[in-house]
Amino acid sequence: MYYFKMFTLWGDILILYGPRGLQELKFLQRDNGYENVSILTMGRIERIWPEFSHALEHYFKGKRGVDFNQFSIDLKEYPPFTARVLDYIRRIPYGRVCSYSHVAQAMGCQQGSRAVGRALSRNQLPVIIPCHRVVSLDGGLGGYSGGLVKKVGLLYLEGVKFNELGRIDDEVFISR
To answer: Which of 14, 92, 131, 157 is catalytic?
Structure first.
């Protein structure tokens, strides 16, 4: 089990990974995020994963089309429904969005938008599993465990456009 820290314009990030792939990506906040770092990294070896580090660096610099699907992720600690949702979310293309209800329908839960939202709230790999690309059916933001300011920032970084009402333009939806 390994870890490394990165320093980005978006803040300090801690990445935890193991033989099965990426496990967690934490945005650290100077006021309280660092106190748990020693607990999270206990028993792990500090070792940079260069290919992943470069991809993440390019992403945060706004380079178009960074694809994190080339890196394995470890979903074994998640409940089965959550793991299925997170695996599905990985396939939403850079700069595009879909609705919670679309994801629910893809999971076979016609009325499962809230269940999808709960599954996304468990995502320990933000950006890598791009839950910021899942929005409300009407183009509203919905929620985001990292805060709506960060969600808007990540969407802007990817070139997602908003209309005059502050909702996401129809053209970037892959499906509602």
So the answer is: 131
Give the integer Cα–Cα distance in Å for 19 and 47.
13
The CATH number of residue 57's host domain is 3.30.160.70
Based on the residue annotation, tell me whether 131 is a catalytic residue of this protein. yes
Q: Which residues pair with 12 in a beta bridge?
A: 7, 28
Cβ burial 107-132 (10 Å sphere, 16+ → b, else e): bebeebbebbbebbeebbbbbbbbbb
- The number of folded domains in the chain is 2
Confidence bin at 9 (pLDDT 50/70/90): confident
Q: Enter the pTM of the model.
A: 0.92
Q: Coil, strand, or helix at residue 93?
A: coil
SS3 call for 100 = helix
